[in-house]
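note to self: dont lose this again. the chain is below, predicted strucutre after it. 244 aa total, dont forget to put it in the shared folder this time
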Amino acid sequence: MPVLAARDIVQRFGQQEVLHGVSLGVERGEVLGLLGPSGAGKTTLVNILAGVAEPVSGLVKAFGEPMPSLELMRRMGYMAQGDALYLDLTAAENLEFFGAIYGLTGPALKAAAATALQTARLSVEPRKQARDYSGGMRRRLSLATALLHEPELLILDEPTIGLDPLHRVEIWESFRKMAAAGRTLIVTTHVMDEAERCDRLALIRDGVFIAIGTPEDLKARAGASTLEDAFLHFARAEGGGHNA
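---
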């Protein structure tokens, strides 16, 4: 049974349909990448998968149960494209606030916060407020808050945007370790070297999946040497979308 499954998801904003009946399944221990340009529908889809938005039609199940569900969302970690932080609080205070939502206090919270900050590759100054952090530091603190309660399923929307190359590589190494330990990740990106690190990719354009498969499979099917060329091949190809 997939850890997360979405079937025939349609989403509209006003008269504009932005997702056109997409379906997706993600297995335990898998890193699934959603790869596509800005405006392709990645953020709209992950908001629905994470339970923070409801589709016009279609069904999402997490751990075999219908979403949205507060109980199920406690087993998930969600990192939005925009940083969901309290800027007048320090890093420790932000982590304390989000930890309380998941019932973490005292020594358990302290240990979880230390692990999350290490995974996010963030060293913090005790008295420094989040508003005084750089964009990259805020991004890493946002990641730490999503990791804090050690969720079984992580849904991350452009988690490394604004980070320097070294931090991006280190964080992706952490993602791979999480997957090896049995945790499941859905990660949106438009960066090709990050896409190469995923187990499978769902290429999305104009609200539909244009191809789904492993990075090597997609390149082979497209007769391409790079994922960028493979994406362009599938984007130009005629025919309907795909489901995973």
